[in-house]
């Protein structure tokens, strides 16, 4: 049962990333050389559809950064990554299931905005989460909704918090 909850959480988080991608993309057409006249601003928000409230009371993730790249095949250390939102010094813990309710199609939680952003068709968006066991000196939110034993990314069920083990944590 524990593994199925975590697997379902991974699916839920994947839907978040897809929804985040749809919400964050901006059409910035123009030349490949950015100038002040042809750059844009992006507002980054996250959402999760109400249909995902199946087995959990809450799904808490702690966001530290959101980046995007024009190259669909870019690796983590390749050039072209643009920081859309940097929350490294003040990570934001968000309950994905509180972002929508039965009366709305979606409700967005604003993570912030950035600019100027070079023009292009962004094909990758990466959401960085706070490590469940951050190193000493790493900024953390003032309150942890996962409790002291479930890291900074968790699902809450009737039996309490369960730490999410996600490869995208850091």
Write a compact overview of the structure shown.
The protein has 170 residues and is an alpha+beta fold.
Overall description:
The two termini are about 25 Å apart. This protein is an alpha+beta fold and about 170 residues long. It is about 15% helix and about 30% strand. The relative contact order is 0.24. The chain contains one helix and eight strands; from the N terminus they run H-E-E-E-E-E-E-E-E. The strands form two sheets. Strands 2, 3, 4, 6, 7 and 8 form a six-stranded antiparallel beta sheet that branches. The protein has a two-stranded antiparallel sheet with strand order 1-5. The protein has one helix at about 1-25; strands at about 40-45, 60-70, 80-85, 90-95, 110-115, 125-130, 155, 160-165. It is elongated.
Our count of helices gives 1
Q: What would the principal axes of the Cα set say about the shape?
A: elongated
Question: How much is the radius of gyration in Å?
Answer: 17 Å
Total number of beta strands: 8
- C-alpha end-to-end distance: 26 Å
Largest sheet: 6 strands, antiparallel
Low-confidence stretches: 1-32
Structural class: alpha+beta
Approximately how much beta-strand content do the residues carry?
25-35%
Helix content: 10-25%
User: Could you state the order of secondary-structure elements as H and E?
Assistant: HEEEEEEEE
Question: How much is the average pLDDT?
Answer: 73
